[in-house]
Every structure is written in C-alpha cells, then in structure tokens.
Specification:
heterotrimer, A mainly alpha, B mainly alpha, C alpha/beta, B: mainly alpha, two-stranded antiparallel sheet, 2 strands, C: alpha/beta
Chain lengths: 292, 338, 251
C-alpha cells in the first residue's frame, strides 16, 4: 500500500517536471508556431545553473532553507537566455520556411550543449543540499523525501499560474490573439515582436524551472537536455501540441505509464510509452487536445 | 504586342548534369591513387553519407516532408548487418545488402504509414519519436544489441566471397577495395534516385510538394504517394547504414540517437535540398567538416552549430544552390554580352 | 439527358445559407456563366459539385449517375475538372511539367517509377499541343512560379483542361488581370473549350465578359437561382439589373 503511494508520488513528481518542459514547448509553439529543438537544452541549462548556484550558496554558508530561492533565480536566468536568443537567432528566420526554423533551433541545440560543456565541464553537477531543505515524510514504514512533495506543489502552482496568465490576464489575451492570427494582431497595433519575446521568455522560464527543480534529485549531466526533449515530444504527441491542458494531461499519462513501466516491465518501459502514444494518435491524430 | 524572344534555357546546357557527373566520377575514381589511406577512408564515409542524405532528400526536397528521424533507418541497416553476422554467421557484403534492405523497407513502410497521416510539424515530431523507439530498444535489450558497447562487425567479404581481407596487409587492401565497392554502389544509387525523381512518379511527388490541393484535384492519392516516398527514402538511408558498419567496425546506439538525424538534415541543407546533387555534396562536405572539427577542438558541436546557423542565414540554398545561382548569372551576362 | 443535374442541393455555414435547395442543370456543350454578387453561393456550388465540400443534403447526378458520395479522384475520373480562383499551380515545376503531370495523372501513369517522364512521347506530344492551344508554348521551360499573372491563370485552366474533362468548372479565370488581358484570356479559353467540345461553367464577375462569351447565364443570389437564360433574356431582366447595377427595380 505504501509502495503504491510512493509510486504515485514519484509519478506526480516526474509529471511536474515533464509538465513544465512540455508546457513551455507548447506555449512557444502555440504563439510563435516554432518547435524549439533546443528546448530540452534550456531545461538542462536550468539544471546546471540551479546546481551551480546551490554549490556557490553552500560554499558561502547560506542557510539551507534559502537554497529554495535558487529555483526561481535559475528559471529567471534561463528566461534571460531566452530573451537574448529570440531576437538574435530566431527572429531573422520567421519569414523563412518552417524547415529553416527547425534547423536553426537544431543549430542552437548544438551550440548550447557545448556551451554547457565549456562552462561546467563534463562531470555531473549535483545539488543534494536542497533535498535537506524539506524534512522527510513517513509513508507507512517508508521514508520519502519531502522535497519531492514540494516539487509536486510547484508543478500544480505552475499549471494554475500559467492558466491564469493565459486566460485571465490582459497579456494572456495578447498571447492568444497573436497565436490565432499574427498578421491580424499586428494590424491591430499589437507589438508582435514584444509578444514573441515575452512568450519565448516564459517558455524558457518554464523549461529552466523544470531543470532547477529536478536537479536536487537528478544531477545535471551533459546530454540530459537531448534526452528530455524526446520525452517532451511524447508528451505533446499524446496531449496535443499548443494546448496547456494537453501538456498537463500528457505529462500525467506519460509519467504514470513510465513509472508503472519501470516497476512492472523495466525492459520495455519506453516501448509501452510509445505504444500508448501510438494508440492515442490513431484515435486522435493531433493528440488529445491538439490544435496543430 | 510582340512576344519576347524565346526564353533563355535555364542552364548552360542540358548536358551539364551528365558532364559534371562524368567528371566527378573520374575524379572520385582516381582518389586512392593520389590521396593517402586516411583520406580514402574518409571519402568512403563521405560517399556513404551522401547516399544517406540522397535518400533523405527524396522526402524533403522532392516531397516536402521534413523527417527528423532518419537515424532510425541508418541504424536499422547497421544493426541488421551486425545481427546477420552474429546469428547467421554471414560475412558476405552482398548478402548484407540483399537481406538488410527488405528489413529496412518493412520498417519504413510501417513507420511511414503512421507518419504520413499527419501534417508537417507533427510529422517531424513523430518521425523523431519513432526513431527513438528503436534507440531505446537498442539500449534496453543489451543482451541482444550489446547495449552501449554495441556490436562488432569485422571486414566482410566482397563480390560473393571472392575477395577477403584476412592476413597481413589486409587493412590497406580493404580500405582501397572497399572504397571502389562503395563508389560503385554510390553510382548505382545516384542513377536509381535520378530515375526516380525524373519519372512520372517523381513529378507527382514534386507536384504534391508544391500544391497539395491541386494535386488532389488532378486525382492523385496524396497519402499513398507520400507513403511510397517515405518507404524509398528509408530504404536508401538504410543502405548507407549497411555500407557504414563494416567500415566503422562497430555499431552502437549512437547511430540511432536523434541528433544524428539532425546531422543528416544538416548535410542536405549544407549541399542544398532543392537540387539533386545538393545532398551528395552536402554528405561529403559534412563528413570532412565534422572530422576536422572533432579533430581540432573539443567543442566541435559549438563549431558545427555555428556553421549551421550561419549557413541558414547566408546560404539557405546550400553550396550547390549558391553555385548554380552564380552559374546562371554568369550565363545570363554572357548571353547579354554576345 | 442533362450532363449534370443537382437535386435540392443544400449547404449551410452556420447561419449562412450558401446553397438553398439548388436545382442546377448543365447541358452538354454549353458555355455557361455563373454570376452573382459575392457570397451568393457560386463557389460553394462548384465546390460541392467538385467534391471540395460535402453537401448537407441533396444529390448530384452526372450523366445519369449519382455521384454525390464519390471522392474527388472518382469525380475527376468520371469527367469533372476545375480551375481555381486563386491560382493553384505547381510553382516548382516547369510550365510544361505542370500540364504533362495532368496528362500523366489522367492516364494513370503516375505510379511509373522506372522510366523517365521525359521519355513518354505520347504525353509530351499532348502536353505540347495543349500548351500551344493556350498560347503558352514559348514559356514551356520556365518554372510555373515565374509566369506573369495572366499566364498563370491560363496555365491553371490548361492544367484542368489537360485532364480532358467532359465538364470543366472555371472559377473566375480573369480575376486579378488587367482588362486588356481579360479579353485575351477569355478568347483563348472559350475557343479552346469549344473546339474541344468541353462543357464549361465559368464563375465570373465581369459582366462584359459574361455577356460576350456565354451561351447561357445563371444568376445566383443568397444561395438560390434568380435568373437563368441566354444573354439577351438576362439583359432584359429587370430584377437582375437591379441586383447587379443597384438600380431600384420598377414597382
């Protein structure tokens, strides 16, 4: 019984991280019609910055509870990276064919992956200290990290915050207008360029946050971004690209299937995942809530 | 209103592609005489990648579908060879090809069936995801696939077992002979692809690429054509994988990992995906580019990534595209001057 | 037997009644113009007949065969083709290849993968002839994307014509071109179509063009037929005049 609860919590933990990554990807696609292949790398940068900041903070003898602040700071840092990338590397290609845009993000991926190697080297970077910020909880006879529960809470909070942003704020209206009809929005006087940068920055923030909250549990390693992108893609295939609800549901489904798979069919855990994705696609070609 | 004079032919001569091809062939055939063993080996890899890119570009340049999952077919070809060796003790290169291609065709047909029902971005994502199914299988079933260590494939026998490379001096002999073998298959592949894209089928593909609605209103079954192109494309790229593994001596899951698919796309773009010879040039140039990048810096990904971005910015039609534009301009000015 | 008959054809788009129980007949050999203000339902009617859209109710009968449930490909095979208002060409292919492809498609030769398209003499000859009829022969080698607008409209018609249909729908073949070119285009189109014994239905806004070239004029308004007859009759029809010219109809 307790094992089941632990697995459930693990699934939700994983789903929170996946949701953040996939929601960022979906948001960027929804508004800008770009699939950012480097999105996973931004997630990885969030993890690296998070781990690095934690290391520095611990070195300076910062009280442990403050380490939690590292997460939003790291996410903001990645958002800043996004603010630099969008006008420099993406904007010149909006008028070009889709193929070129996709390829530019691939080039960006290569660049970012090596920048991480350059800055942080080839060894994994850990942030274990953060795990101690929250006391453990006891489930049955088992000890479970309280930090994981915090991550689940952050995931829920992020989903709510994003939903509020998109559907209840004026900025959200701008986002939705631009995503539905960019030229019309521009003709109405909307500063599309600003909306694009903002959307991209928010997407990067989400990815960076995902990295920052996962790194205390899973160290930052080179190549984690490339791996993460594939999972994010499975999430949007299942949930639908461009949909917030889709990212949430997709992340939950992928996460649960993966956790169950690891528990019961470790060899074919990923294959089961893809099988589920294939089934969803046959029934709903654009994913469960897709707008693509 | 007087109609203008006959429109200028668009290229200096209709024989240019054939002449250029002949010259290229002569150059390629004489490479082992003039360049060392290392360069010959490198160029063999280049020709192999050219075949991979040529197959890929049937889907992109001619059908308008961008696949980010072609590593699947390349890897499938490579691993099939390794399995043929391990399970059936086969050493013959011809058998590798004859048995490997149908396997790739079946998987391409299956993956293609799933993917062509979808539109552009989703198509790309699906191709990537499907390729990673194979990647994860290669990793997980390590007792079959050797996991991250991969599977070794020693030198095969060529020409139905007539030529083998055991014994001393085997390596240089292998490199030279294998170069010509690959060159021969390369020429054959180019010829086959040439016929495919210039056939009525090829024209139909291009029509579907240019205007799906109109193609439908000519009575063409869009999905069927795309599926056929997908099948051919995957099989071609698998051929490259089959040729690659005996030269590399080893196949690992890296060859199925999705960034390799990105490299294949990169190659086609580098050469120019709107030209027939673009992927060929791109495959060869990229191989040399990557080899020198890896040799010269630890941060070769950074280098390649920057090259890619600059390429898209400045040379979107690729090397061949840019050269042909220059050639057209020269031809046009020549006509005006005479 | 009429070549084409629609029976109570209906199509709504939300509150808009684009086709309101339309009974449309086309006789073999006619050159018919379909006119009406924007939103009258002309393009919808053509879209329904060519299977671009599915009707809400009603039937379409072609040569006494019910084609209502037939796919696009099946209807083309039966002998119905169309050109498009917004030019739809294969811009990356040459002008020649655009027409040749039409012929390959018609002949079912598009599955041929082992022979060069350039080697099919029959197709090449026919493509040359069609291009010559439409006055586009000199531009054969150019990519279709490089033609001037008037030539593009002609090519659009030529591609549809090369399917050798029995019934050809032309959606505004002269829109977007200068008045001088309009006459040229319609001269070419009407002469080719008549000499090829193809029945044609032309959607057109330019009433000069309509009166000059048509055997019969059908006028649509708000999804229904308002008038149907030879040009003289329509000219004299005052209800038509008031709608077209905005003049108040006599009490």
């Amino acid at each position: 019984m307790s094992i089941l609860l632990v697995q459930l919590l693990n699934s939700l933990f994983y789903a929170s991280v996946l949701f953040l990554i996939a929601a960022g990807l979906s948001l960027i696609f929804g508004v800008m019609r770009i699939v950012n292949l480097a999105h996973g790398s931004l997630f990885a940068i969030g993890a690296y910055i998070g781990a690095w900041l934690v290391g520095r903070a611990v070195g300076f003898g910062v009280p442990v509870i403050w380490l939690l602040l590292v997460m939003p700071v790291a996410a903001l840092a990645v958002a800043l990276v996004g603010v630099v990338i969008e006008p420099l590397l993406l904007r010149p290609f909006y008028r070009r064919a889709e193929e070129y845009q996709l390829l530019v993000t691939f080039g960006l991926l290569l660049i970012l992956e090596d920048l991480m190697r350059l800055v942080w080297g080839a060894l994994p970077l850990t942030a274990d200290a953060v795990m101690d910020t929250i006391p453990v909880v006891h489930i049955g006879g088992l000890v479970y990290p309280g930090y994981n529960i915090l991550v689940i809470a952050i995931g829920i909070a992020a989903a709510v915050a994003l939903w509020l942003l998109i559907y209840e704020t004026k900025f959200g209206v701008l986002l939705r207008a631009t995503s539905q009809d960019r030229r019309m929005a521009s003709a109405l006087g909307l500063n599309v360029g600003l909306v694009y940068v903002a959307a991209f920055a928010i997407g990067c923030f989400m990815a960076g946050l995902g990295g920052a909250i996962v790194v205390p549990s899973h160290a930052a390693v080179l190549g984690m971004g490339i791996e993460a992108l594939v999972l994010a893609f499975v999430v949007v295939v299942v949930g639908g690209l461009g949909s917030l609800k889709g990212a949430l549901v997709g992340a939950l489904i992928v996460s649960f299937v993966r956790t169950a798979g690891i528990q019961f069919f470790p060899e074919v855990e990923l294959a089961v995942l893809y099988l589920i994705a294939a089934v969803v696609l046959i029934a709903r070609p654009t994913g469960l809530f897709g707008t693509a | 209103m007087k109609t203008a004079a006959i429109a200028l032919p668009r290229s200096p001569s209709r024989l240019w592609p054939y002449a250029g091809g002949a010259i290229g062939l002569v150059v390629l055939a004489s490479v082992p005489e003039f360049l060392g063993l290392y360069q010959t080996q490198l160029l063999t890899y280049g020709l192999i990648m050219a075949i991979a890119a040529l197959g890929f570009n049937l889907l992109l340049g001619y059908t308008g579908l961008l696949s980010f999952g072609h590593s699947a077919y390349f890897g499938l070809g490579a691993y099939t060879v390794a399995f043929l060796l391990q399970w059936l003790g086969i050493h013959s290169m011809e058998l590798y090809i004859l048995l490997g291609l149908p396997v790739a065709a079946i998987v391409s047909a299956l993956f293609g069936y799933i993917c062509v029902r979808h539109t552009r971005i989703f198509f790309g994502i699906l191709t990537l995801a499907l390729s990673q199914v194979l990647y994860s299988l290669a990793l997980k079933f390590f007792w079959v696939t050797g996991g991250t260590d991969g599977l070794r494939v020693p030198r095969p026998t060529l020409l139905a077992g007539m030529i083998d490379f055991a014994g001393s001096g085997g390596f240089p002999r292998f490199i030279r002979s294998y170069y010509y073998y690959v060159l021969g298959i390369f020429v054959l592949s180019v010829a086959i692809m040439w016929v495919i894209v210039h056939s009525p089928f090829g024209k139909a593909l291009q029509a579907i690429r240019d205007n799906e609605t109109r193609a439908r209103f000519l009575g063409l079954r869009i999905r069927r054509f795309r599926w056929a192109a997908f099948l051919l494309s995957g099989t071609f790229t698998a051929l490259a994988g089959i040729l690659w593994v005996p030269l590399n001596g080893l196949t690992t899951p890296d060859v199925l990992y999705w960034p390799f698919s990105g490299e294949i796309v990169f190659m086609s773009l580098l050469g120019g995906f709107r030209n027939f010879s673009g992927p060929i040039v791109g495959g060869i140039v990229f191989t040399f580019l990557k080899t020198y990048a890896v040799a010269s810096t630890e941060y070769w990904q950074l280098l390649l990534g920057t090259v890619l971005v600059v390429l898209i910015l400045l040379l979107p039609t690729g090397i061949v595209g840019a050269l042909s534009r220059v050639a057209k301009r020269l031809w046009a000015t020549k006509e005006i001057a005479t | 037997m009429s070549l084409l008959r629609t029976v109570e054809l209906r199509k709504r788009f939300g509150a808009l009644n684009a086709c309101d129980g339309v009974d449309f007949t086309v006789e073999k050999g006619e050159f018919l113009s379909l006119v009406g203000s924007n939103g009258a339902g002309k393009t919808t009617l053509v879209n329904l007949i060519t299977a671009h859209l599915q009707p809400d109710s009603g039937r379409i009968v072609f040569e006494d065969r019910d084609i209502t449930s037939m796919t696009v490909a099946a209807r083309i095979k039966a002998g119905i083709a169309r050109s498009f208002q917004l030019v739809n060409l294969f811009d990356g292919l040459s002008v020649f290849d655009n027409v040749a492809l039409s012929i390959f498609a018609r002949e079912g030769k598009t599955a041929k993968i082992t022979a060069l398209a350039a080697n099919d003499g029959d197709v090449r000859r026919e493509a040359r002839d069609v291009l010559a009829e439409f006055g586009l022969a000199v531009k054969s080698k150019l990519p279709a994307g490089e033609l001037a607008q008037g030539e593009r409209k002609l090519l659009d018609v030529a591609v549809a014509y090369a399917l050798r249909p029995k019934l050809l729908f032309l959606d505004e073949p002269t829109s977007g071109v200068s008045s001088a070119e309009k006459a040229q285009i319609m001269d070419t189109v009407s002469s080719v179509v008549r000499s090829g014994a193809v029945t044609a239905v032309v959607i057109e806004h330019d009433m000069d063009v309509v009166f000059r070239y048509s055997d019969r004029i059908v006028m649509m308004h708000e999804g229904a037929f308002l008038a149907d007859g030879p040009p003289d009759e329509i000219r004299a029809n005052e209800a038509v005049a008031s709608i077209l010219l905005g003049t108040p109809s006599p009490a």
